[in-house]
Write a structure and sequence with these properties.
The N and C termini lie far apart (66 Å). The chain contains eight helices and 30 strands. Residues 1-11 and 639-647 have low confidence and may be disordered. The strands form five sheets. The protein has a ten-stranded antiparallel beta sheet with strand order 15-16-17-18-19-30-27-26-24-25. Strands 9, 10, 11, 12, 13, 14, 23, 28 and 29 form a nine-stranded antiparallel beta sheet that branches. Strand 21 and strand 22 (431-434) form a beta hairpin. The longest helix has 13 residues, at 107-119. It folds into three domains: 3-96, Nuclear Transport Factor 2, Chain: A; 107-214, Roll (Nuclear Transport Factor 2, Chain: A), CATH 3.10.450.40; 236-287 and 298-409 and 435-616, Copper amine oxidase, catalytic domain (Beta-galactosidase, Chain A, domain 5). With 647 residues, the protein is mostly beta strands.
């Protein structure tokens, strides 16, 4: 198909924020291949929408669709970023990145890395010395090499940890080949280093969780049926969603996965903006073990791996239940061909217990309203772990971001009978799992009733004049500059943060606001002098606030793969110490899971929830859900089997 015929298929795009279509991705790749990326040695890291300027969108001006592309030229070992005008077919930007800058991995590179390891004669011989000869059972798990002070000389590297299956369908994570690492140059396909240190016996006990190994499923649980006979309450037009008083646009990028755009709440027939754009910005998983292999495990799953590319195709009845709307995720392979991840995003409604209730004991009357939430989610598999990311919208204007972590532990080997002080021994055969953290950062381009916002820190204070010894109050402190807004959580002060609009007042003449409730507000455990801490400085603190700059997109910087952390990211941008009072602001919140491994996490981990809440705080003049209908007792089974009231 020619470029001219491809552009005819682009007409179906309905909004400037819609992700690139398959036709648009093909067109961008074709334009670049006929231009500066004509050499066959070029590979595509990503092709995605170059989101239009916010001011142009607000003004309703004509938007020209553009695309951002990131490429690697394997022949010269250099990377490039490009901007392509889809309307004119012109490459309007083409910049070569510094020699030491490495973009995220391509999906193809995972398979290429494993293949390079599997056929390498030195690797085969080294494994044979350890008694491992069936290479079909060996699993080379690609990991980023990170940065630990070594000069990579501009090489694009990947580090393979090695596991082996006892049986073809066995879990390889039960059998780590400890102290054995393979380093691969992804551009040349060469194994450039084999780290084969003191051998530790490979644990042989099974870690299989498949039904045929664990026995028959229990039969004591009766089915739960989730039905909506009249259909769901949401309306979907392309990528635009209306539900209850909410409306927003669904987006998807290779780096972030699910993105929410233009989140607004209808209040008395007025569409009030809350957040212009919200997404996962970055995450890092640092391990706390000092063992040679384990100490270098600290994957940046967004910036190094492009976590959106790893989104699952979700399946009705398993990953989501109820009346579901799916959205596909469209990305690209390394040759620039569009790839559709079917059902990458799931949207459905869930009951959420009571929203408000009161029984007037004097009149013996009760009023109850039930809450429900709209769930927009995607699940990504990053090697051993699954991360399920959820945005929850509630009827009262509250918003929740939740990560559900599951999957399989990244395991290590020790001599049988030993117990590492840095992890949980999982069996008596030498298998253990190191302590680690899962640290997430979410970027929220706030627009609380308009683009000019400010942020207050709110702490509990006990006044000095406290004759009854019972007094305590909430005290607001305006965060005036970026440096002053680098903050940590403090549960002893019951700390939270408010995003306010001084230009819009509520019924009591206070600025309208949303508050960020900092649950799971842990910080990075690694010391400041560690390499991972220097690269993931966003995780040293919980709150960051920046003056909006469209180039400041990711908490650890644009390209954290093999980066030192010395020249990009939140800690660099905030050195400008810009004014953040009544400005167009971006709020970045870091939270996480301090994963002290337990036996119950093996052989597959029950999900762990990590997240935070945003709540209206004087955004409305009163409870905005007074108009909700009463619950029908018959329809919702709000009575006992005997028909008696169960108030």
């Amino acid at each position: 198909m020619t470029i001219d015929s491809e552009i005819e298929n682009v007409v179906g795009v309905s909004h400037p924020l819609d992700p690139l279509s398959r036709a648009e991705i093909s067109r961008v790749a074709a334009i670049l291949k006929e231009g500066p990326a004509a050499a066959e040695s070029f590979r595509f890291i990503s092709i995605e929408l170059r989101e239009p300027d916010k001011e142009l969108l607000r003004a309703g001006e004509k938007i020209v669709r553009q695309a951002d592309a990131v490429l690697v030229n394997r022949a010269e070992g250099r990377s490039y970023v490009a901007i392509v005008d889809l309307e004119s077919g012109i490459v309007t930007g083409w910049d070569q990145l510094a020699a030491n800058v490495q973009p995220p991995f391509m999906l193809d590179e995972f398979a290429e890395c494993e293949e390079s390891c599997r056929k390498n004669l030195e690797v085969i011989a080294a494994l044979a010395k350890r008694g491992i000869t069936d290479m079909e059972l060996v699993c080379f798990e690609p990991w980023s090499v990170g940065y630990f002070g070594e000069d990579s000389e501009g090489r694009r590297l990947m580090r393979a940890l090695v596991f082996v299956r006892e049986e073809p369908d066995d879990s390889p994570y039960a059998h780590p080949i400890e102290n054995f690492i393979v380093i691969v140059d992804l551009n040349t396909g060469e194994v450039i280093q084999l780290q084969d240190d003191q051998a530790i016996p490979v644990p042989s006990a099974s870690g299989n969780y498949l039904p045929k190994y664990v026995g028959p499923a229990r039969t004591d649980l009766k089915p739960i049926s989730i039905t909506q006979p009249e259909g769901p309450s949401f309306e979907v037009n392309g990528n635009h969603v209306k539900w209850a008083n909410w409306n927003f646009r669904v987006g998807f990028t290779p780096r972030e996965g699910l993105v929410l755009h233009q989140l607004r709440y209808r209040d008395k027939d007025v569409e009030r903006p809350v957040i212009n754009r919200a997404s996962l910005s970055e995450m890092v998983v640092p391990y706390g073990d000092t063992a040679p292999v384990q100490a270098k495990k600290n994957a940046f799953d967004s910036g190094e791996y492009n976590i959106g590319n790893m989104a699952n195709s979700l399946t009705l009845g398993c990953d989501c239940t109820g009346e579901i709307k799916y959205f596909d995720g469209i990305t690209t392979d390394s040759l620039g061909n569009p790839v559709t991840i079917e059902n990458a995003i799931c949207m459905h409604e869930e009951d959420d217990s009571i929203l408000w209730k009161h029984w007037d004991f004097r009149l013996d009357t009760a009023e109850t309203r039930r809450n429900r939430k709209l769930v927009i989610s995607f699940i990504a598999t990053v090697a051993n772990y699954e991360y399920a990311f959820y945005w929850h919208l509630f009827l009262d204007g509250s918003i929740e971001f939740l990560v559900k972590a599951t999957g399989i532990l990244s395991t290590a080997g020790q001599k049988p009978g030993e117990k590492s002080p840095y992890g949980q021994t999982l069996n008596n055969d030498g298998l253990y799992a190191p302590i680690h953290q899962h640290m997430f950062n979410v970027r929220m381009d706030f627009e609380v009733d308009g683009p000019r916002n400010a942020v207050y820190e709110v702490d509990m204070e006990i006044p000095e004049d406290n004759p009854t010894h019972t007094a305590f109050k909430a005290v607001d402190r305006l965060l005036e500059t970026e440096q002053k807004a680098i903050r940590k959580t403090d549960s002893s002060l019951h700390r939270f943060w408010k995003i306010v609009n001084h230009e819009k007042k509520n019924i009591v003449d206070e600025p309208v606001a949303y508050r960020l409730i900092p649950t799971d507000g842990i910080q990075l455990a690694a010391g400041d002098e560690s390499f991972v801490s220097k690269r993931a400085q966003f995780a040293r603190n919980n709150l960051w606030v920046t003056s909006y700059d469209r180039t400041e997109r990711f908490a650890a910087g644009e390209f954290p793969n093999q980066a030192t952390g010395s020249d990009d990211g939140l800690h660099i941008w905030t050195q400008k110490d810009r004014n953040i009072v009544d400005q167009d602001l971006v709020v970045w919140y870091t939270f996480g899971m301090h994963h002290v491994v337990r036996l119950e996490d093996w052989p597959i981990m029950p999900r762990q929830n990590i997240g935070f809440m945003l709540e209206p705080h004087g955004f409305f003049d009163q409870n905005p859900t007074l108009d909700l209908p009463r619950v029908s007792a018959a329809a919702n089974h709000c009575s006992s089997e005997e028909g008696q009231s169960t108030h």
